[in-house]
Amino acid sequence: MRKENSVFRTKFISEPGSYIKNQDYFAFVELEDFACYCIADGIDEDITRESAKLAVSAVIAAFHENPGCSKGAAKRYMQAAHNELQRESKEARLEASMVILLTDYKKALWASAGNTRLFGIRNGNIKWKTKDTSLSQGMAEKGDIPIDQVEYHEERHNLYCYLGQAGRFKPVIGKKKKLEDGDIFVLYTRGVWESVGNAELLDSLEEASDPESVCTGLEEVILSSQQDIVENYTIVSIFIDKIYRNPKAGKQKKYIKIGMAVAGVLGTLLLTFGLVRYNQNKSNLETMNKSLENAIGYMNEDSYDTAISEFEKAHIAAEKVKAGKNSKTYKKIEIVDLYYKMSLNLSEARTAFGQEEYKKCYNKYSSALEKVSQLEKEKEEVSFGKDLEIYQKFANSMEQAEEALAEKNYEKAGKNFSEAGKLADSIDATTEKTKAEEESKNANGNHALQNGDESKAEGEAEMKAGAYQKALNSFQTARNFYTSAKDDYGNTDAEGRITELDIRMEDANNKVAKQTNGELESEAEKYEQAAAEAQAAGDYETAKENYDMAKQLYKQTGNTDMMAQMDAKKEATESGPSSESSEKALAALLSAAEYLSRGDYGNAIANFDDARKYYEEAGMTSEASRVNNILTQMSGMIAG
Fold first, then answer.
1. In the chain, fewer beta carbons within 10 Å around the N or the C end?
2. How far, in Å, CA of 26 to CA of 188, rounded?
3. pLDDT in tens, 121-130
4. What is the pLDDT of residues 219-274, one digit of tens each?
5. Residues contacting residue 509 through CB under 8 Å, at least 6 positions apart
6. What CATH class is the domain 7-242?
7. pTM of the entire structure?
8. Distance of CA 302 to the CA centre of its chain
9. Does residue 571 contact residue 624 with C-beta atoms inside 8 Å?
10. What CATH code would you report for 517-639?
11. Is 14 helix (H, G, I), strand (E, B) or coil?
């Protein structure tokens, strides 16, 4: 069904290179619901046995027997290949490097051991790739060697994990990834990557329209590298033109319930016909185990609704199983019960999310994680627990964001929505990510609108107080916020506010234009007084802002003396005492301002010059530069 409604195209090349015998091997099988692609490179010295072929054949056989696309399935297939090589290692140890790619035609995962490699390409870029289980790879990850030196490092073939090894075998198994139309996978052995870098791989893909041209393009790179000895090489290219999309996804739960009802009726009929208790118990136990296995597999595939239904089937079957309290079967029934309770919490959490009840959603995910913790204490490997933790954190961020919205704290709400979006993105939860990003955009737009309203209110108050220039500045700040709300966040309320504000800004401009020099200087004196009060209170930012306003008004009246005084006072505010020399500089600046107020330009310039020298002694070059600019302005005033 899935295979018929998807398009996967596969081509490969496998050649011995400079050798008579090819120790590489590749095979793949595409069933109705699952597909398996397996590539291996024999790394032992036995020229009479084909270790790569043995390993790949074992994987394909295991896949045929029990096809799947989960971490558990990948682990079984790798173990089957490892066991086969160990079993056949009679006169000499058989060893191989391998990569397995599994897919259900809409998602994929892979497992690897050794230095055979897999690359996943999306939109012309390498999105995923396997890591070698080699000493060189480990050195690169620790920062001992550059990552781009792994292909050439002397320890690149020194492997710590490979098929057929003695001791514990622990392959690397990746997390399941969602596929998209147009994705490409390329797999190849060491005979390829020692000659082909990432740039050459992407170049071959850029000009290729089919998997065969990718293989032939990479082969040309290998053969043109002019190596004395060309190793065995195998190249596999898989083009995913179309992934499977289930047209009946919404009806699955209904069908499962119908199936369960039918199963219940059948069970009743079987009892009616008098099946013996032993067979009934055995059947229920098998159903329990199979449903539990299916449910865990669906959880690992993020198919939560189907998984919940399977957990329910396992629970129903477990209630019918008879077992002694100290038996392994009884312990398994307790584990099934924990999984079932966890699935109920998960179902309630997902319902709460759909209803935007994020606090309830968070609590239900927390309850589900408590069950996961209990399962782990029972030695259960719950690989989907990490995803549930992220969903829990997502719900918590959404809850905090909603609380902030209720309080009209749009800044906090925007940050929490954004954090929720990042969490959802980390586990490819598209629906949750989209919801969070939309809410974040709305909150940020309202925050910008709120800031604009506050600045506009300040401007209105300043207009009433006759501080027209300051009001104009506040109106401009408000307009910037409204423009951001409109252009950056799509807030529809901002347009009307901008139109209204433009009228108020024109009114403020007219008020400023009509002020006499006396009125302007009177307003400037108010700012100067406000700056002095702020400076005395230690609020230096407000002090500097008010000195700037005063200077701006003095500039409109042409009063250059007072402009210079405002610069001097602002400079004193910006500096602040930090050493004996800087204290002297501050005193000189204040004296300069005093002389300026009396019209004594000579002494004012002398004190400015002293301040510059003191700043230079203190190593405060930026402050010395600012004072030097004031001196330049003073010289221009006197010359004029």
1. C
2. 10
3. 999 999 999 9
4. 999 998 888 888 999 999 999 999 998 776 555 555 546 555 555 555 555 444 44
5. 472
6. alpha beta
7. 0.43
8. 18
9. no
10. 1.25.40
11. strand
